[in-house]
Amino acid sequence: MNKKWNWLTGGLLLGLIFLLAAWIVKPIGVSTQFVILNGIVWNLFDADLIENDQEAKHKHTSTNVYLNKSGGKYAKSVENPINYGFLFVLSMFLGSIISNVLLKNKVTKDERIRPKVWTEKFGQSISKRYIFAFIGGFLVLFGARLAGGCTSGHMMSGMMQTSLSGYLFALGVFAIAIPFAILVFKNSQKK
Amino acid sequence: MTIFLAILLGTVFGFILDRVGASNPQKIINMLRLKDFHLMKVLLFAIGFSSLILFILLSLGVVDTEHIKIKSAYTGVLIGGLIFGLGFAVSGYCPGTGVVAAGAGRKDALFFLLGGIVGALLFTFIFEFVESTFLFDKILGGKVTLANTNIEKYPTIFENIPAVVVAGIISVALIVIAFFLPKKSN
Q1: Which of A90, A13, A118, A115 is nearest to B19 (CA)?
Q2: pTM summary value
Q3: What is the count of residue pairs from A and B with beta carbons less than 8 Å apart?
Q4: Cα–Cα distances in Å, from B3 out to A25, A83, A90, B8?
Q5: What is the DSSP code string of B135-172?
Q6: b vs e for B79-93, b when ≥16 Cβ sit within 10 Å of the residue's Cβ?
Q7: Neighbour count for residue A159 (Cβ, 10 Å)
Q8: Is A22 on the interface with B (CB under 8 A)?
Q9: Torsion of Cα atoms, A171 then A176 then A140 then B49, to 10°
Q10: Dist. CA A2–CA A102, nearest whole Å
């Protein structure tokens, strides 16, 4: 188990984990947990942020409208950080670390800073890559929250369930990401 | 039990994402540039395969319908997707693969995650003001599926065709594309 997989093995196993998660717990999603993490930190400094409320569907309310939505669903997770969704995403770090410890071809020092395709186009500057990675992350999570899900929740889990919103999200993402990537990384070498 | 499952499934998911190469922004960016279709083949096969099996299991009554969660379609899904696409193309990361890439020791992924935390925070603050705008207007019927889940709150486009047939046709199409896409292109 020290090699990358071919696409068929990879696709089979990736499909299986999405299926298995939906079967025994619920469909996989990631981007919500960025909100939960923010909420957990915020809750440390603001004692009024979350309150118990037996009337609410999830028994919690929040002064923040977003955390309060769907009957206090996010508020509940913020108040109880040891919950399924949050631990699931934290555990993904662990899975990645295990994979990399077992892997013989480690990620090179240079690749840990920026991918080759970036260097070929934008040069060696480390800060430039970090700034654009930050901006990229900002847009990705803002977009995902507006859309109500990300690649995992909308695209994979959504399309697996033949959900129209999943196809709609995928359409939006690729309609911009493909021409934009071609444009931004134009004249960069193929590999 | 759910805590144990969270750790088990999350670890396996992170492991798999890393092994298929999804945590490598080089692979993501070159997929979007239509140069390297490895990840596209992985994704198409994974969606097709899981969808087919899910609807077979549903038709057999093996999967608890409580576990089916259909997200609503509204204008913001498309617009959010467009904004997401910009950041996805520049960084080569999405939320899940960003987490996995950070675990693989990639430092740019840490900046991606930091940006993501700020982006999610901004949305948490402005939701109150955008929730009443056109962005949250339902479109295409809201929580709609193509294949019938037989769950009352989720309407279906192809109501009179057995779900396994609908999901089967979509799945076969996705899997066939996965097989025929070249690994690389010039």
Answers
A1: A13
A2: 0.95
A3: 493
A4: 11, 7, 12, 9
A5: GG-B-TTSS-BSS----TTS-BSSTTS-HHHHHHHHHH
A6: bbbbbbbbbbbbbbb
A7: 26
A8: yes
A9: 40
A10: 6
Q: How far apart are CA B8 and CA A137, in angstroms?
A: 26
Cα-flanking dihedrals φ and ψ of residue B36, to 5°? Answer: -135, 110
Contact: B91, A97; criterion CB under 8 Å? no
- Residues shown for chain B: 186
- Say which residues have a Cβ less than 8 Å from residue B75's Cβ, sequence separation at least 6: B134, B135, B136, B137, B139
Q: How far apart are CA A119 and CA B185, in angstroms?
A: 21
pLDDT tens per residue, range A55-79: 889 999 999 999 999 899 999 999 9
Q: How far apart are CA A29 and CA A187, in angstroms?
A: 35
- Measured between alpha carbons, how far is B76 from B138 in angstroms, rounded to an integer? 9
B84-143 pLDDT per residue, tens: 999 999 999 999 999 999 999 999 999 999 999 999 999 999 999 999 999 999 999 999
Closest in B49, B121, B186 to A12, CB measured: B49
Name the residue in chain B with its Cα closest to that of A90: B10
d(CA B97, CA B103): 10
The answer to whether residue A17 neighbours chain B at the CB level (below 8 Å) is: yes
